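hey
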């Protein structure tokens, strides 16, 4: 991987759906580039040299991670400080700030602490706005023998063409379900494999939802969708779900309802459900009781709500509106 004909490009773009392992591979590659023991090209980092030990401690001086502040909080579900200060949580940026890129620029211009490679991982690249991306481009244009950028993108088509043209794109496909099931089973998560279709067949997304407790919340949303209560009572229940610690976001809740309505539409035209195949029979039963035009109307109405789900002015009213729109086809 280092030296000779197999030299790695200095800017890599790992592109593909979320939850298929792009960040995990980027980190493994970063550790390998930083590793100080000579290794065969296809071998992983040694894990025992001074650099690997620093890597394992999470404090490698020649590694930088660029990510939005909001991602940091997502990594710490149930953290007392963040939960206690909901005001701060709202302010956490979903964008990579220009100041963060400037710090990388400084890091780029000083020589490395260990005299070897230096690596910057950007996760995700679409969290850079055009101004931030342009200032990163300026760094990418200056060649440096020992500096590597690994950009991660779940939506690479949205990236600036200049960013795409200056990096080597590596596409990540979705693993086959059998492979994902094995991977989940190895992590004692076999029972959650039924969520693979819901999460776009991305095993890491399923594992993450299990870890953060969101799968539990999703289970109860599905139970509600199978047996919906009257709209106001339903809004009440879902309000407590989105308020709970490590809970579903409003956006995720709306998207779950959208997926459910989509699958009802599939069943209404005798097509297989895409997101909830294990609920095929129940979905078919519900679809049989309602008219297709009313269902399509509900789908459109919930779709319109989606745009507001990030920052509803009044979460309670928003949820009531969602329940009325979603359950109207069922006569509730
Ligand atoms: Zn090592």
């Amino acid at each position: 991987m280092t030296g000779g004909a197999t030299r790695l490009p200095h800017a890599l773009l790992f592109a593909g759906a979320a939850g298929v392992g792009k960040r995990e591979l980027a980190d493994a590659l970063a550790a390998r580039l930083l590793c100080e023991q000579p290794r065969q090209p296809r071998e992983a980092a040694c894990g025992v040299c001074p650099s690997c030990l620093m890597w394992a401690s999470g404090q490698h001086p020649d590694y930088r991670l660029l990510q939005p502040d909001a991602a940091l909080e997502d990594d710490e579900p149930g953290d007392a400080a963040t939960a206690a200060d909901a005001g701060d949580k709202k302010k956490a940026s979903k964008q990579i700030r220009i100041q963060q890129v400037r710090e990388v620029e400084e890091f780029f211009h000083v020589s490395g602490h260990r005299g070897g490679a230096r690596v910057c991982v950007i996760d995700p690249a679409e969290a850079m706005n055009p101004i931030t991306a342009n200032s990163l481009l300026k760094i990418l244009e200056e060649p440096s023998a020992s500096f590597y950028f690994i950009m991660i993108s779940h939506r690479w088509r949205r990236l600036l063409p200049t960013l795409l043209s200056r990096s080597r794109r590596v596409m990540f496909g979705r693993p086959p379900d059998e492979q994902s099931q094995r991977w989940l089973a190895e992590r004692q998560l076999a029972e959650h494999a039924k969520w693979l279709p819901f999460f776009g067949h991305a095993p890491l997304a399923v594992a993450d939802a299990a870890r953060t407790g969101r799968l539990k919340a999703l289970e109860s949303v599905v139970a509600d969708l199978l047996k919906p209560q009257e709209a106001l009572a339903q809004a009440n229940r879902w309000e407590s779900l989105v308020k709970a610690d490590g809970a579903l976001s409003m956006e995720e809740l709306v998207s779950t309802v959208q997926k459910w309505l989509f699958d009802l539409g599939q069943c209404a035209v005798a097509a297989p459900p895409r997101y909830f195949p294990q609920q095929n029979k129940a979905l078919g039963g519900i679809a049989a009781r309602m008219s297709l035009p009313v269902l399509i109307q509900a789908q459109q109405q919930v779709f319109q709500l989606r745009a507001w789900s990030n920052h509803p002015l009044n979460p309670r009213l928003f949820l009531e509106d969602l329940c009325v729109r979603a359950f109207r086809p069922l006569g509730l």
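The pocket of zinc ion is lined by residues 35-37, 45-46, 49, 51-52 (CB under 6 Å). The chain has 16 helices and five strands.
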